[in-house]
Amino acid sequence: MPGNIDARLLQMKGPDSGRAHVIQDVGQAHLLSDPRSLTYFKPFLAEERTVSAAAQELGCNLNTLLYRVRVMLDAGLLRVTRTERRAGRAIKHYRSVHDAYFVPFGLTAYHTLEDRLAAQGAPLFGTLIRAYGEVLRSSEHSGRFLLRDERGAVLTTDFPPQQTPGGLPIVFYDTTLTLDVADARALGENLQSAFGQGVSARASASSGPAGQRYLLMVALLPLAEVDQVTRPGQDTEA
Questions:
Q1: Is the CB of residue 95 less than 8 Å from the CB of residue 49?
Q2: What are the backbone angles phi and psi of residue 27, rounded to the nearest 5°?
Q3: Going by DSSP bridges, is the β-strand pair 21-22/101-102 parallel, antiparallel, or unpaired?
Q4: What's residue 202's pLDDT?
Q5: Quick one: 141 exposed, middle or buried, by C-beta within 10 A (0-12, 13-18, 19+)?
Q6: pTM of the model
Q7: What pairs with residue 78 in β-bridges?
Q8: How many Cα atoms within 13 Å fall on the side-chain side of residue 102?
Q9: What is the DSSP letter of 163?
Q10: Are 233 and 175 contacting, i.e. CB atoms less than 8 angstroms apart?
Q11: Three-class secondary structure of residue 150 per DSSP
Q12: What CA–CA distances, in Å, run from 104 to 14, 15, 73, 114, 129?
């Protein structure tokens, strides 16, 4: 599942792009495919961190992260880049051995691809549900509507507001569409362009004052006949 997307990843095409180290060790694959373990690894990916700095970034217990760092060192995922003296103490700095990784599915502990997607997507979709719930709660939108629109399609919707009571923008829509290939391709290009603009805006804002964090997701997926989200002729919008 997409996580925090770096602008460089929009140009990556897969493990043969030459940018990612292909994992061949089962232990490393387990650590990098488990959502909890991956959380502790992320601060050190392609960047140097002390354990203290990484713990502060993650908001986790220092001893917990110290244990995780030892595990990742033993697994060959982290290396010590340098050691400095502070108040008579030796402070180690850590960084991932490689700057990018590709984890083959066959080395993971998941039985099916859907199992992997469900496990790795759970934190993301949990965040989505909590954020959307807070938007509805703060705007006093707790009920759900069932109606037929002007096109004759049946909708079940929350009618989410376009902004929070504090004025922060909100966009939340989903639906099923029937498109020809040309229209779908054009829509996909527009969505990818909008997503890229969001990533670029985040990169530009990173050097300035801290702003509001937002969850941005984009999806346009062809549906198999047996996997229709709604019955034919019906649309569902949040």
A1: yes
A2: -65, -45
A3: parallel
A4: 67
A5: middle
A6: 0.74
A7: 96
A8: 13
A9: B
A10: no
A11: coil
A12: 11, 9, 21, 14, 29
Give me the long-range contacts of 168-177 (CB less than 8 A, separation at least 24): 168/212, 170/135, 172/132, 172/135, 172/238, 173/237, 173/238, 174/236, 174/237, 174/238, 175/235, 175/236, 175/237, 176/223, 176/228, 176/229, 176/230, 176/234, 176/235, 176/236
> Domains (ranges, CATH) in the chain?
7-107 (1.10.10.10), 124-227 (no CATH)
Match 């770096």 to its residue by tokens.
6
Name the residue among 235, 123, 116 with its Cα closest to residue 175: 235
Token reading at 236: 């569902």
Token code pair at residue 84: 């400095």
Tokens, residue 136: 């509805």
> From first to last of its 238 residues, what are the pLDDT tens digits of the chain?
444 445 444 454 444 445 899 999 999 999 999 999 999 999 999 999 999 999 999 999 999 999 999 999 999 999 999 999 888 889 999 999 999 999 999 999 999 999 999 999 999 999 999 999 999 998 887 888 899 888 888 888 888 889 998 899 999 988 888 899 999 999 999 999 999 998 888 656 554 556 888 999 999 999 986 565 544 444 445 5
